[in-house]
Design brief:
With 190 residues, the chain is of the alpha/beta class. The protein has one domain: P-loop containing nucleotide triphosphate hydrolases (Rossmann fold, 3-Layer(aba) Sandwich). It has a five-stranded parallel beta sheet with strand order 2-3-1-4-5, with helices on both faces. Helix 1 crosses helix 9, helix 2 packs across helix 3 and helix 4 runs parallel beside helix 5. The chain binds adenosine-5'-triphosphate and magnesium ion (MG). The site of adenosine-5'-triphosphate has 20 residues, from helix 1, helix 2 and helix 3.
């Protein structure tokens, strides 16, 4: 099994690139953000708990998303691997992922990172807000907090995966087609 991580700040284009990646490499795309939004839409206890955190631009507890990933790995069998989008987002989650992969006899294949500057994060999220209507895209304060959360809690993972020799950075400011071509050329190596 391959375990690819699709990494990057909010609005970097992870969701945009994921389906082409999943299709080409026969991976199951798992977005923790999408899974959490489904829970919120269905009004489950978990969704209710997650809602206030997400709308404040904070992260949900590590155990919650770790459980989602473990559950997916346990139940999905008919694929060549997984494409993890929005997970891991903290060092604790990255360490948990290493353990979960090891328990399946595997390891993280590569961390494919889409990088864009903070100003572009804001522009893209503002644009997306008018199309997708996500509550956490609509409010400036929430966006500021998501950017801060990314720098404080998620950015340290770059060093984590560099140290493991698994970090592949791609310039996310290019066109969708150019970014996709870059991603494929990196993934073909792993
Ligand atoms: P993108 O723009 O690439 O979709 P995003 O950061 O805007 O990225 P999601 O990945 O969809 O949005 O996540 C939305 C929210 O869900 C996050 O701000 C966070 O509150 C919560 N969330 C998603 N994944 C995790 C995670 N791994 N750990 C903790 N919270 C998470
Ligand atoms: Mg997303």
């Amino acid at each position: 099994m391959k375990y690819y991580i699709l990494f990057g700040p909010p609005g970097a284009g992870k969701g945009t690139q994921a389906s082409a990646m999943a299709e080409r490499y026969k991976l199951r795309h798992i977005s923790t953000g999408d899974l959490l939004r489904k829970e919120m839409a269905a009004g489950t206890p978990l969704g209710k708990k997650a809602k206030s955190l997400i709308e404040a631009g904070s992260l949900v507890p590590d155990e919650v998303v770790e459980g989602m990933i473990e559950n997916a790995f346990d139940t999905i069998k008919d694929v060549d691997g997984f494409l993890l989008d929005g997970f891991p987002r903290t060092t604790a989650q990255a360490e948990a992922l290493d353990k979960i992969c090891a328990s399946k006899g595997g390891e993280v294949t590569a961390c494919v990172s889409l990088m864009i500057p903070d100003e572009m994060i804001r522009e893209r999220i503002k644009h997306r807000a008018s199309i997708e209507g996500r509550a956490d895209d609509a409010n400036d304060e929430t966006i500021t907090n998501r950017i801060r959360t990314y720098h404080e809690q998620t950015e340290p993972l770059i060093a984590f995966y560099k140290k493991a020799g698994k970090y592949e950075e791609i310039d996310g400011t290019k066109t969708i087609d150019e970014v996709r071509a870059q991603i494929f050329s990196v993934m073909d190596k792993h």
